[in-house]
Write a structure and sequence with these properties.
Blueprint: E1 12-17, E2 33-39, H1 40-51, E3 66-71, E4 76-83, E5 88-92, H2 98-101, E6 102-104, H3 110-120
Antiparallel strand pairs: 1-2, 1-3, 3-4, 4-5, 5-6
C-alpha cells in the first residue's frame, strides 16, 4: 500500500475501532473510538505491515471496522480506514494525491492478517 510521504515522521498511532462504518463512504475524516495507542517500534511495525499490504481486487461494500491516525510530535499526519471485507482502504491527509485516497489491499495476505490480529488484540476480552 502506498503511504503518504509523511509516514516517516510518525511517532505514534491511534488505533481506531470504527463504530459507524457507513459514515466513511463520503466522510472527510476517520471517526470512531480510540482502542489503543502504539508508539515507537510498535507504531513503526504497524506502518511496515501497512506498507507491505499487496494490492488486490476491490469489492464494493466498504464498511471499515478499523483505522489508524498517525501523529508526529505535534500534529496528526494522516488517517486510514480499512475494510477487510472488500479489501478497501480510504486515506485522509493534507496534500494527499487523489490516487492515494482510495486503495485496495489483499485482506488475506500475511501482512493483512497480522495487522488485523494486532487490531483485534486492542479489544477488551
Amino acid at each position: 500500500m502506498l503511504l503518504p510521504l509523511t509516514h516517516g515522521k510518525t511517532e505514534l498511532i491511534e488505533v481506531i475501532r470504527i463504530t459507524d462504518p457507513l459514515r466513511h463512504l463520503s466522510s472527510e475524516d476517520l471517526a470512531g473510538d480510540t482502542a489503543a495507542i502504539w508508539e515507537g517500534d510498535r507504531a513503526q511495525q504497524a506502518l511496515s505491515l501497512i506498507a507491505d499490504l499487496p494490492n488486490s481486487e476491490l469489492y464494493r461494500c466498504f464498511l471499515p471496522g478499523w483505522g489508524i491516525r498517525a501523529h508526529d510530535s505535534t500534529d496528526q499526519l494522516f488517517e486510514i480506514a480499512f475494510c477487510f471485507r472488500c479489501h478497501g482502504a480510504r486515506m485522509w491527509g493534507p496534500d494527499l494525491p487523489a490516487e492515494h485516497q482510495g486503495q485496495s489491499f489483499d485482506a488475506e495476505s500475511p501482512a493483512a492478517l497480522e495487522l488485523l490480529r494486532r487490531f483485534r488484540s486492542c479489544l477488551p476480552d
